[in-house]
């Protein structure tokens, strides 16, 4: 409870209500089935990929360990966001507790940044494989993967922690309806009676520092890869090299494109429906998770053969 200067009294809220599509509620009916299918596809495909890499000795290599890490991150992101969204769509279970909301906020920010960082490490892996193939076995080792995993974990766990902490320290009074399907930082903090300038600045600076630096390094790696590939003169070498890193580039391009569209819709929010960024935010947590294992399963011969061997064994 807080007493204001004008004598009015405000009571702090104890939970939030997630109101997905304020201006287009019919979207919930149309999205519930495809979103459910995408969720189960993401869970099943990533589980199959993890089991295949775990059981197939031929896939116990640094590149596939990084792919396993990406699948684990996708599973956590999906489980953090989509079940709650589907519960809202199907059963109108909009309430979410104060602690659960900020926990979801932290996991989303942390694991999204971890996924971006994993893509960066995978781009570096492909850069060494294409540009320095003779040095690849000595640089990209199991120890390298362990160090990369520690870096990914440490960097993003600590740098994203202030986001939910700053939001949780705000004083929430009056309105408790979050105009979003998820507990996005700015959607929640704008309900506060306090000044949210620090929250906005940290979200902006942190986002562009983490994701922005990752994307710059990713595209720098692929620029160097493309330059090296175009210098290859051996017959079929260009096609083989592009095929080797094609899966990575397709997924990174999609990941960065949908993120860029999401940012642009926020910038131009006066020209688009407020429900569009909400929709993109939800889809960004499930579509890449569903696509990642499928693209790798289709385009990577070793994974495809591993899945086929497991199926023959009766898995």
From TrEMBL:
SMART domains: 7TM_GPCR_Srsx (SM01381). It is a multi-pass membrane protein. The keyword Transmembrane applies. GO terms for biological process: cellular response to lipid; sensory perception of smell. SUPFAM superfamilies: Family A G protein-coupled receptor-like. GO terms for molecular function: G protein-coupled receptor activity. It is found in: Membrane. Pfam families: 7tm_4. Residues 45-296 form the G-protein coupled receptors family 1 profile domain. This is Olfactory receptor 56A3.
């Amino acid at each position: 409870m807080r007493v204001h200067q004008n004598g009015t009294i405000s009571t702090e809220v104890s939970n939030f209500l997630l109101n997905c599509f304020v201006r287009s509620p019919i979207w919930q009916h149309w999205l519930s089935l495809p979103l459910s299918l995408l969720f189960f596809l993401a869970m099943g495909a990533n589980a199959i990929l993890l089991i295949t890499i775990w059981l197939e000795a031929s896939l116990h290599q640094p590149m596939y360990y990084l792919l396993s890490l990406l699948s684990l991150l996708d599973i956590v992101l999906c489980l953090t966001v989509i079940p709650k969204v589907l519960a809202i769509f199907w059963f109108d279970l909009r309430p979410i507790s104060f602690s659960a909301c900020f926990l979801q906020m932290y996991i989303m920010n942390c694991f999204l940044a971890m996924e971006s960082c994993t893509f960066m490490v995978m781009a570096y892996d492909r850069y060494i494989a294409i540009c320095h193939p003779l040095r690849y076995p000595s640089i990209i080792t199991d120890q390298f993967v362990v160090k990369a995993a520690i870096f990914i974990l440490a960097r993003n766990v600590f740098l994203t922690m202030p986001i939910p902490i700053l939001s949780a320290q705000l004083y929430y009074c009056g309105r408790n309806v979050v105009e979003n399907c998820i507990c996005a930082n700015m959607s929640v903090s704008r309900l506060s009676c306090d000044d949210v300038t620090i929250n906005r600045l940290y979200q902006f600076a942190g986002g562009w520092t983490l994701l922005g630096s990752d994307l710059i390094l990713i595209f720098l790696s692929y620029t160097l890869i493309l330059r090296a590939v175009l210098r290859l003169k051996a017959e079929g070498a260009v096609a083989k090299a592009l095929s080797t890193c094609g899966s990575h580039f397709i997924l990174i391009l999609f990941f960065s494109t949908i993120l860029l569209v999401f940012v642009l819709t926020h910038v131009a929010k006066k020209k688009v429906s407020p429900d569009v960024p909400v929709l993109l935010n939800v889809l960004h947590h499930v579509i890449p998770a569903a696509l990642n294992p499928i693209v790798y399963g289709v385009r990577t011969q070793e994974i495809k053969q591993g899945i086929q061997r497991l199926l023959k064994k009766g898995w």
